[in-house]
# Entry
Amino acid sequence: MENGKRKIMWCLTILVVAAVAIGVIYYVKTNMSPAQQTKGYLIRKWRRYPMAVNQDTLYVKGDRNVEVTKREVTLGDLVSMECSNRVILPHLKTMKVLKIPENGEKRYVISILKIIACIHEKYPGLEVQNLGETDLIVTYEMQKTPSKWVHVAKTILVVLITFFGAAFSMMAFNNDVDVDKLFGYIYYWMTGKQSSGFTILEVSYSVGITIGILVFFNHFGKRRFSVDPTPMEVQMRLYENDIQTTLIEDAARKEEELDVDRANRLGAHRT
# Structure
């Protein structure tokens, strides 16, 4: 009699467990899309979190030269990012990409492919499109706040060097072409009198040089005469571009660039 009761209890237990299992399987099957059914349940569970959606696209844009003031460099320090999935952006911006050692180098060249590889390590299904530079120069600068007197001293020194350098150059040019003698001849031909060295020609020449310099450099103090960049700014940008190009090419030639196809130091510095 006891054996019969035990058999009945075991049968009832097996039927209940089977019914629960069939119900769970039916619920899962009916609530999964066809694409998820082919890829398994874990894909569905992965997609339930916005951080891991495979259909999202991340747009990144980085400048060619980036200066940082902290040793632990995050992705947000290097590139600007935009994505329709707002949940993943805070995680990406705080993701550590590079850790600069105390006595290490102060400048690194990082390929954008290495940054994309770091993103894919955390979000394998995320599509990344680069809208900026292909190589980034990361320069570490210690954050220092010089005193006000240091800025004043530098400004005075630059003003003095520029003033006396320009004055010497103009005097040397005038002396080479003998402007005084030329103006004397012109004044004598026009008036029939000998020049005293301080006539309308010398005054007009001095005023013309001043106006020409202001118009050429396109600003006086903080005021600009037009929205166009000044020739000095154009030359400075060209000089900066040449320096950046040289740094990138030298790093690639010496195999010091942090890239995906090299066993470089980026992975060692990441935390």
Strands lie at 57-62, 65-68, 72-74, 79-83, 96-99, 107-111, 127-130, 135-140, 219-220, 223-224.
